[in-house]
Specification:
Blueprint lengths: L1 H4 E8 L7 E9 L2 H13 L1 H9 L8 E4 L2 E4 L22 H25 L15 E6 L7 E5 L5 H11 L4 E5 L3 H7 L11 H8 L4 E4 L2 H7 L2 E4 L19 H13 L4 E5 L7 H11 L6 E5 L9 H6 L4 E5 L3 H14 L8 E5 H32 L3 H9 L20 H14 L3 H28 L8 E5 L14 H10 L4 E5 L5 H9 L22 E3 L3 H5 L4 E4 L11 H6 L6 E4 L6 H7 L2 E4 L6 H4 L6
Parallel strand pairs: 6-7, 6-9, 7-8, 9-10, 10-11, 12-13, 14-15, 14-17, 15-16, 17-18, 18-19
Antiparallel strand pairs: 1-2, 2-5, 3-4
Amino acid sequence: MDSCESLLINASLVLWHERALVVHLTTLSVSPLSLLQLLWFLTSLDAVATFFFFLYGTRHGYFLKRRGRSESVGSRDGVFKDSWPRPSSAHRHTNTSRRRQRASLLSHASRQGRERDRRSPSRRRWCGCPPSSSEICLVTDLSDKMVKICCIGAGYVGGPTMAVIALKCPDIEVVVVDISKPRIEAWNSDTLPIYEPGLDDVVKQCRGRNLFFSTDVEKHVAEADIIFVSVNTPTKTRGLGAGKAADLTYWESAARMIADVSKSDKIVVEKSTVPVKTAEAIEKILTHNSKGINYQILSNPEFLAEGTAIEDLFKPDRVLIGGRETPEGRKAVQALKDVYAHWVPEDRILTTNLWSAELSKLAANAFLAQRISSVNAISALCEATGANVTEVAYAVGKDTRIGPKFLNASVGFGGSCFQKDILNLVYICECNGLPEVANYWKQVIKINDYQKSRFVNRVVSSMFNTVAGKKIAVLGFAFKKDTGDTRETPAIDVCKGLLGDKAQISIYDPQVTEDQIQRDLAMNKFDWDHPMHLQPTSPTAVKQVSCVWDAYEATKGAHGLCILTEWDEFKTLDYQKIFDNMQKPAFVFDGRNIVDSEKLREIGFIVYSIGKPLDAWLKDMPAVA
C-alpha cells in the first residue's frame, strides 16, 4: 500500500537540443482514492493527452521537427530515445491503453533520470533543494544553463583558480576583474603576470572561450550569479591591531561596490584569507545596502601551494565550503558545490558552517608553519651537537602519526600566507581573551625570524666577522622554487642583514625581475601586500645590489655564495667552475640543503649547511657575530 501512497514523478522534458528544462516533481503524496481520481482525470481529458504528446513530437510518435530535419528528442542525454514505449495502434483510443501508456512513460522517465544523475554527479540540480513533500522545483541544470562567475582580484589565487574552473566547466562563463589595467593586460597577453607551472596552458585553452579578463569591474559583477572575492587582506601597519590584525579595507570596498551595482540575487564567496567572523561583517554591509536583493555569503578558502597550484586545483586534497545553516544558506552551498563537482569527487568537497571554514584556513597555515619552525629549531640544536637534521627529520617523519612533509630545515618560511595568517590568529586569540594561546603561536614567528638572523650571523662570523665591501652572491630570491612570488621571502631579510654590514650583493633568480627585487628591498614590511598602485612607484634602488641573469656571472669574483631558493638548476651547476672564479677562501652557505656538502669540500669550498655537522673551519668561529 505504501507504494500506492507515494507517486514519484521525475519527468525530463527536453524542449530543445541545446536547452533542457528539468521539471522535478518530488514525492507528490496522495491517498489511494486521490490517486484513482488523478488517473481518471488524466484519461478523461483528451486535451491533456494531446498537449503531453505534442511536447515530444507527434501524437503517435516521439520525434520533433526542427531546423528542417527530424531529431530524436533528448538525444543529447540518451533519454527519451527510440527506447520509449510506443502505444499500440489497436488500442490507443481506449482509456485503459492511455492509462498504461502514461504510467509507463512516467516510470521510464523516472528511472532514466535517476540513472543519469547517478552516473554524473556534476549534473545535480542547480537549486540543491532536498526533496520535500508536495514540492515542485522548476530549476535549470548547471550543464544546460550558462551560469556566470565573476572573480574580483586577478592575483595568485584568483587567476589560477578561475582558469581551472573555466577549463573544467566549459558551460560556465568566468570573468576575472581587477582595477589594475597592466595586470589585466598581462593576463590577456602571452606573458602572464605570474609564473606557475601549467598555468599558461590552462589559460590559453580557455581564454576567449569562457574565460575573460577585464577591468570593467562593475559590469561583470552586476551580471554574475556567483562572485568570488580574492582581494588583498594585508596586515595592518597602523592603528588598532597594527602588526597583527588583517586590514579589511579592500574587502569592505569590494562589498560596498557589489551592493551598489547588483540588480539580482548573488552568492558572494570569500576566497581571500580573512579573520573569523569576516563573513558576518560583509553580510551586514550587503544587507544594509541590499535594495531588496538577497545575498548569501560563503567561505571557500584556498589551500594552494605555489609551484604546484595547478596540480592542487586539478586534484585537491579537499574543497572546503562554509555557509549559513539556513535553507537559503544550504542552497547556496549546494550551488557552489555543483560547480566543483564537475571534476572534484564528492567525498573531497567538505561543507561546514561559515566560522569553521574561515578558521580552518588560518589553522591549516599555522600548523604547516609550526612544522617548519619545529624542524628549524631542531636544526640549531643539531649544529651545536654534531647531529644531522636531515637524518633526524627522516627518522621522525617515518612515524606515520607525523609524516615526512614540511620537515625540511631551511633558512625560514616565506610566502604571502604563513606569517600573515599566524599574526592574524594571534590577534584573534588576544581579542578573545586567550593570551596563552596567542603566545604559543607567536613563538612560531619568533623561531622563523631567529632562523633568518642566525643564517646572517653565520655568514658574517664565518668570513672573519665582516662582509663590508665583499661581494656576496645570492642564488634564488623567490620564497620557494617554481614560482616568481617574493612575498615575505627569507631572501629579503637575509639580504637586508648583509647590506646592514655593507656587503655588495649580486642576485640571480630565474623568475624574479630586477625591478621586483629592488622594490622588495626598498619597501617597508607589509607594504608588499597592498595593491601595486598603492605601493611606491619608483622605489629607490639599493646601490649595493646588482641583479644578473646567470648564476656564473653572479658568483664571479664573489667571496661567498648563499643559496636561498631551492631551484633545481642550482643542484646541477658546475661548482668547480664557480670555485675557480671566486675569491679564496670561497664560502658556500646552503640555506636550503640542496647541494652535496662533501663534494663541494673536495673542490675546496668551506661549506655551511643548515642543521648539518659544521665544517672544521666553522667550528672555530663564533655562532653569533
